[in-house]
Amino acid sequence: MGHPFPLGITRLGIEDHTAVPWALGLNGAASVLGSVGAVGMAMAYGFNSVILAGFFCYVLAWGCYGFRPKQP
Question: What is the reported pTM?
Answer without folding.
Answer: 0.67
